[in-house]
């Protein structure tokens, strides 16, 4: 690496190592989703404890109500987004080798996208049960 | 970047645990715990879509001892992360930074967590 870098200008070596300029929106989205989850999370636990029937037929009926399904999807979306933002900060704080850090962040984010796709496909199927 | 051999600050092995630092790291632990809970949440909606037998299998998972311990863990994590998160939002708005206030809000967070977690036990059992 040292030989390959020898002929590069100082500017060329520095490029790409600075801030990605995304810190403020990351911070702000974390706060927005946290406020949303205050309500959605409490609503979901309340619904789970009090309203959602325990039988399969009952829970399917409950989820075929558009309001209920919309709120469930909002809860899962906000939770996945908030979780991905938080885990990214934790990885960035404790993993210091650049390629391992990037690998961890991408693996985590792809997993979260996969969970969101699973949720959407499940939601569509529940409507036709 | 070359890895330096110098010790990293803060020196956790000689640091006396304080309420401020302990509550702070617990917020992260609760967050990680809740992230693993997301798998359970997605599994729940998947199981409903997959049909009655998968749904019943999921229910029996959560009625076993391991399932119940996990549910209790996620409930405690949720209420802690929620109440301490509200504490953080108040800080973000610029209030409550005086040291006595930090301790009072810390105790309120712990009391709220204990109360709501105890309430959730009723529904888990």
Task: Write a concise synopsis of the structure shown.
Chain A has 129 residues and is mainly α.
Characterization of the model:
Chain A is an all-alpha fold and 129 residues long. Helix content of chain A is 82%, strand content 0%. Chain A has a single domain (37-127), classed as 3 helical TM bundles of succinate and fumarate reductases (Up-down Bundle). Chain B is mainly α and 125 residues long. Chain B has a single domain, classed as Up-down Bundle (3 helical TM bundles of succinate and fumarate reductases), CATH 1.20.1300. In chain B, helix 1 (19-50) runs antiparallel to helix 2 and helix 3 (65-92) packs antiparallel against helix 4 (99-124). The model of chain B has no long low-confidence stretch (mean pLDDT 92). Classes of the chains: A mainly alpha (129), B mainly alpha (125). The interface between A and B is medium-sized, with 36 and 31 residues.
Number of helices of chain A: 6
CATH superfamily of chain B: Fumarate reductase/succinate dehydrogenase, transmembrane subunit
Mean pLDDT of chain A: 93
Provide the succession of SSEs of chain A: HHHHHH
The helix-and-strand class of chain B reads: mainly alpha
Q: What kind of oligomer do you see?
A: heterodimer
Biggest sheet architecture of chain A: none
* Secondary structure tally, helices of chain B: 4
Which terms summarize this structure?
heterodimer, A: 129 residues, mainly alpha, 3 helical TM bundles of succinate and fumarate reductases, B: 125 residues, 4 helices, 0% strand, extended
Secondary-structure blueprint:
The complex is a heterodimer of chains A (129) and B (125).
Chain A: H1 2-6, H2 10-14, H3 23-51, H4 56-63, H5 66-94, H6 98-127
Chain B: H1 19-50, H2 52-63, H3 65-92, H4 99-124
Helix pairs in contact in B: 1-2, 1-3, 2-3, 3-4
